[in-house]
TrEMBL record:
Entry keyword annotation includes Transferase: no
Protein name in UniProt: Tubulin polymerization-promoting protein family member 2
Gene Ontology CC terms, in alphabetical order: cytoplasm; microtubule
Lineage: Eukaryota, Metazoa, Chordata, Craniata, Vertebrata
Classification via Pfam families: p25-alpha
SUPFAM superfamilies to which the protein is assigned, alphabetical: EF-hand (SSF47473)
Cross-referenced InterPro entries: EF-hand-dom_pair (IPR011992), TPP/p25 (IPR008907)
Organism: Amphiprion percula
Chain intervals for the UniProt region annotation (Disordered): 134-178
Keyword list, A-Z: Cytoplasm
Length: 178
């Protein structure tokens, strides 16, 4: 990369994206230590050999204000200036910083290990109403839709003079026969 080829605005847009990542109240003007470490990890500034997570934490603590828990974009640049020579050994500070900017530009937080919805066969088997037996079977109609309260309770027939009389509605027929 030629000197000065990485624009500060491009680096700042990546800084903003990482600053608001995972924090609903973040304005994007300041970045906390967790997100700074994430930026370093996602942009491969942390390579495990020259720069480790410990180095990143130390640099973050060094550049932030004594009582603050966040860094501004200026402090972020200061932190990168400290990390650049470590990451790119054998290069002068400006070259190393430009290469570091190159790693950051255009990057966004990656969501590695986002929890996926488990679609286990066991769940399908347990919720398949066609395989229900016994009293549970009566709670669902043929389509597998639940019957609601009528499927759960024995609702007594309270119609007529004598409740649950099997021959209800036959009185008129008997009177006509006689």
């Amino acid at each position: 990369m030629a000197e000065g080829s990485a624009s500060v605005a491009e680096v700042q847009s990546s800084f903003y994206k990482f600053a608001v990542h995972g924090d609903t109240k973040a304005t994007g003007k300041e970045m906390n230590g967790k997100n700074f470490a994430k930026l370093c990890k996602d942009c491969t500034i942390i390579d495990g050999k020259n720069v480790t997570t410990t180095d990143v934490d130390i640099v973050f603590s060094k550049v932030k204000a004594k009582s603050a828990r966040v860094i501004t974009f200026e402090q972020f640049n200061q932190a990168l200036t400290e990390l650049a020579p470590k990451r790119f050994k054998g290069k002068n500070k400006d070259e190393a910083l430009q290469q570091l900017y190159g790693l950051i530009i255009g990057r966004e937080p990656t969501n590695v290990g986002v929890t996926k919805v488990a679609k286990a066969a066991a769940v399908d088997r347990l919720t398949d109403t066609t395989k229900y037996t016994g009293s549970h079977k009566e709670r669902f109609d043929e389509s597998g839709k639940g019957k609601g309260k009528s499927g759960r309770e024995d609702i007594p027939d309270t119609s007529g003079y004598v409740s649950a009389y099997k021959g209800s509605g036959t009185y008129d027929d008997k009177v006509k026969e006689a």
